[in-house]
Amino acid sequence: MHHPLDLSHVISPGLRDLVELANTHGFDRVTEQVRNLRGCTSPINLQGWSTTADRTTGEVIRSYRSEDEPSGRLLTTCGNRRASRCPACSRLYAADTYHLIKAGLSGGKKVAESVRHHPRAFVTLTAPSFGPVHNRETDNGNTRRCRCGTRHTENDPALGTPLNPATYDYTGAVLWNAHAGALWARFTTYLRRALAEHLKKTQSTLNAALRLSFAKVAEYQKRGLVHFHAVIRFDGPDGHSSRPPSWATFKALRVAVGMAVERTRLTIESDAVGERHITWGKRFKVDRIAALADGELTDAKVAGYIAKYATKNAEGAGTVDRTLVCRPCSGRGYVRGPDRFHGLCADCEGTGQAELLASLPVQQHVRQMIRTAWALGHLPEFADLKLWKWAHMLGFRGHFSSKSRAYSTTLGALREVRRAWRLAQAEAARVRAGLPGRNDATTLVTDSSWAYLASGYRPGEELLAAQTRHEIEHQRRFRHEEGDLCLLPS
């Protein structure tokens, strides 16, 4: 007769739960399922089923039910790209981004290897000034004094904050962040026009002979404003498989970028804040990407740099990584009762905020940008920007990384390749176990039904996940010490 364990003397809830799991018949399967998540911080808990059958004969090839699991649920990775939320999933996202960018620079993943000989530039576009801030400029390795008279250290929290907060244009800064994505889209249009003008060609002639491909990523500066790093590549009319014409040179690209930066602008009209012009900052860089590995700016360095920032959020600016909108009332400050009348939201007391802005653990400069975004978001003329929703992002609401259609492969295609590889591994395991293999000529049809239950682990599972993370980090450190610097998987 089975007697339940007396674990009242075990203080730790996680350890108590782990002991209970270890004394069940399905502990090996629990361990396997957690290990398969590769250290995911907050896995998705699903309940449901799926079947794969031969379309012709109706024979069921594979079937799965979550209720057959020891815990009665299926755990799957959260897939969050943000390193602050899930380091494990963000590393996989960074790896995919790395190979996506690298393929557009040196070929592979169905991209012609000849692209490495196309004119390519690494372009950095910044925001304009909205008031002087504390900075740390260097001259021949020596740190110069800031305008405040101090030589700031590299980690000085004052860096990026206004010298005079009372005169700093917070409204302009938040509105610039909010329109940065649209400014980039307009820049790509003006870049083509500037290139045609510089080369003394019509737009139609240019489009028939030359294609511009790009990939970009957004990065936060310490002052809370985003700037963009972009790879811009010249292709022939058929894309990456064709060479661009001889007159499409890196020098022409550099000149065109300068012209487009100067001319690109958006105009905003508002009764509350007046007319505003959204433009690029005067500081921008256009660097040549070396075709060979002996250059300073190589394919691998550029791809690694962009992949690194693809997993970042606004944490680099010192803000929080969560929305500040009250979920019960969706930021409105009121809820609609059964009688259809509006009532004050009890959770936020009518503020619409999940947390009081005054109590956020951030610097005053960041808090003021959040407060400004929240206030602007409730003006009628800026309602479509939903700035209250993106206040924790200091107003920025665009995609952190994006690319033109013809630049290279897609994240979806990379994930499909990984999925096919895992299916092939599973099929090989079936064959090794003596089970009948699947005929590749068989047409399969899959039917499934899934429902979301929750996110996260049981306390005991969290301990298993922590052990998995430790083992993965140990392996990565060992590989690094052995000299394998390319830690991004294919």
From TrEMBL:
Pfam families: RepSA (PF20199). It comes from Streptomyces albospinus. This is Replication initiation protein. InterPro entries: RepSA.
